[in-house]
Amino acid sequence: MSFKLTYATMFNPPEEMHQRYEAALAELSADLGGRFHLYIDGEDRPAEAYDTRVSPLDRELVLGEFAAADSADVDAAMGAAQVAFKGWRHTPAAERIAIMRRIADLLDEEVYLLAAALTLETGKNRFEALGEAQETADFFRVYADSFEQQGFDHMLPNDPLPDWTSTNRSVMKPYGAWVVIVPFNFPLALAGGPVAAALVTGNTVVLKGASHTPLAGRLLADCLHRAGLPAGVFNYLSGPGSRIGDALVAHPSTAGVTFTGSYEVGMRISRFMVAGRYPRPCIAEMGGKNPCIVTRNADLERAAIGIVRSAFGMGGQKCSALSRLYVHSAVADELIARIKGELGKLNIGDPRQRENWLGPVTTAQAHANYARYAAQLGESAEILHGGRQLDDCGDGYYVEPLLAEASLEHPLWREEMFLPILLLARVDNFEQALELANDTDLGLTAGVYGDQREVNQFLDEIEAGVTYVNRPQGATTGAWPGYQCFGGWKGSGTTGKAIGSFYYLALYQREQSHTIVE
């Protein structure tokens, strides 16, 4: 199919996309309910215990029994990765690059089956699920290309010695056994991206899948196995973070960690990684409380579309989702009307059905949190749309998109709710909006709708790693490998470098200087 899947392009896809997705969904649904093991040292490894997982779109739909790793499994996986490191780091770069591209090709072949699994496991609609599956394949391809192009081996000028030839060289080398810990909301892409980066640069990997969404990681492990990775180079564990996540971070063989998740957990891991006998690298992306500014000069039709897509896509369960909206008072009423009009067009329900745009939230805890936040806003803010848990969509975790106008002193302006809840405030001018947008400890994504002068000031002063301007495809969301880099400032990230950027692969390597006198 010539159609290019990205988050920005798939809102008017060809009919073939729907047909292939639905065929894959039927194929996968026929095989649900089985037992899924760990993957260690090139082989499936049974566990002492298994957890039964059900789908958030229908709690009667059993996805399968998934291995719950323990400390012995952690030791086995880290031991396998440590042993495999010597051979993998000495594998020629061209061979590692070729394997990454082979993985990308295999993921391309499975993209519809992977998307079907993501729908069943996370509750994403087909567009979001297909986007994540294709994004994962693109990560492997983009990082293979980037490593090939950058080289990370540079000759420097010779020392200016009259009687000696003294050559100098900068070489980047991998660290060792790298741990990747992923969240429930993007269990495939946020696994595949760091795994690809770590592997292509010569590290070995132990991947820990999110306990709520372990299927995606297991399917990724199957793909990497088929690609022919040597035993121990990649290993997959599933189970609770409190049991095996902490054990992986603390393991003496862990050379570095990539973590995506909450600010609190990310900061704890980051502090731990620098507190040992010597500091070890921690690449942490820790969420966002993302703002959008709509000025009196904005295209309100474009803004309303982008706001709804960004705040409520995948039920707001994205670290990049819009959660704070600052609107000039002169256009606030019209924008609110347009947003409510867009929300009125959305179908909520079983995401397997083509007509439904918003499926359930992923976890029982998120479902309960929504009710708690809605009640809090009902008491202390004006709810403009939504606020109900929905019982008529089936036995799943369905809720309405919630839009509320709240005072600037409301505590939820500072809490990352990770739900389809958007707070709105009226402002008197652009400068006030920009000050409010920056008034947060987090700085992942931000958007603006305005004229050229306002855009220029926004891009100069906004404190966020990912910015979007006048974008109907998403006010604060929608980065794609090879098109946008993605990373946070302030409390949203530990490195100041972004996924998919020119600088990301360097984070998985350490520099060594070679001076040789002949």
From TrEMBL:
It comes from Microbulbifer pacificus. It catalyses: L-glutamate 5-semialdehyde + NAD(+) + H2O = L-glutamate + NADH + 2 H(+). The keyword Hydrolase does not apply. The keyword Oxidoreductase applies. InterPro entries: Ald_DH/histidinol_DH, Ald_DH_C, Ald_DH_CS_CYS, Ald_DH_CS_GLU, Ald_DH_N, Aldehyde_DH_dom, Proline_metab_enzyme. Belongs to the aldehyde dehydrogenase family. The lineage of its organism: Bacteria, Pseudomonadati, Pseudomonadota, Gammaproteobacteria, Cellvibrionales. This is L-glutamate gamma-semialdehyde dehydrogenase. Pfam families: Aldedh (PF00171).
